[in-house]
Write a structure and sequence with these properties.
This protein has helices at residues 17-30, 43-50, 54-57, 59-75, 118-128; strands at residues 8-10, 35-37, 80-82, 99-102, 107-110. It is built from five helices and five strands. The strands form two sheets. A three-stranded mixed sheet has the order 3-5-4, with no helix packed on it. A two-stranded parallel ribbon has the order 1-2. It is an alpha/beta fold. Helices cover 29% and strands 9% of the residues. Strand 1 (8-10), helix 1 and strand 2 form a beta-alpha-beta unit. The chain has a single domain (8-148), classed as Rossmann fold (3-Layer(aba) Sandwich), CATH 3.40.50.620. Bound molecules: iron/sulfur cluster.
Length: 185
């Protein structure tokens, strides 16, 4: 008997069209319904409350509103969550373990791929015909929100995320100094 594991996508409203298409392909391929976890504020409401294009002026605050806070709500009452992070993705993830306590959300965090390399992932994808985001084959080794994702010229596979900023994580895998007040404009 198989286990039913609830799955979700953190849908910031700013993902690539290819990412939304991948969600539909994964649902069809594996016969699952992936829940879209969305922020309380849509983009228009966020712009009205915090100014336009918050991701350009204060990406930590934007990530908090569109990723960290919705994830915290989605994980309420849950004993554990499973992620796809790997230790070799970046320096910020080098300490990732297969099973660890998630202090930020107060539950177990399971990272089955923690010790996998990029080559391990590629081999598994090929062997099992796993649907992938086509952007991975177009020079984007890591894909997040469209405004904050670029093709890296050098560095680790997450170097194209928030390129040009010191920011390397959105805050769901690494606690950030979150600004709760209106950011300066
Ligand atoms: S990755 Fe960029 S657009 Fe997405 S939530 Fe964070 S700052 Fe906002």
């Amino acid at each position: 008997m198989g286990l039913t594991v609830p799955t979700f996508l953190l849908d910031t409203g700013l993902l690539f069209a290819d990412t939304y298409a991948l969600k539909r392909r994964v649902e069809q391929r594996y016969g699952v319904a992936i829940r879209s976890v969305r922020p309380r504020l849509d983009l228009a409401d966020q712009a009205a409350a915090h100014g336009p294009r918050l991701w350009q002026r204060n990406p930590d605050h934007c990530c908090y509103l569109r990723k960290v806070a919705p994830l915290k709500e989605a994980l309420a009452g849950v004993d554990a969550w499973i992620t796809g992070i790997r230790a070799d993705q970046s320096a910020a993830r080098a300490d990732a373990r297969a099973v660890e306590w998630d202090d930020q959300f107060g539950l177990l965090k399971i990272n089955p791929l923690a010790a996998w390399s990029r080559d391990d992932v590629d081999r598994y994808v090929q062997a099992h015909d796993v649907p992938i985001n086509p952007l991975l084959l177009q020079g984007y080794p890591s894909v997040g929100c469209e405004p904050c994702t670029s093709q890296p010229r050098a560095g680790d596979e997450r170097a194209g995320r928030w390129a040009g900023l010191e920011k390397t994580e959105c805050g769901i895998h690494q606690r950030l100094p979150i600004l709760d007040q209106e950011p300066s404009r």
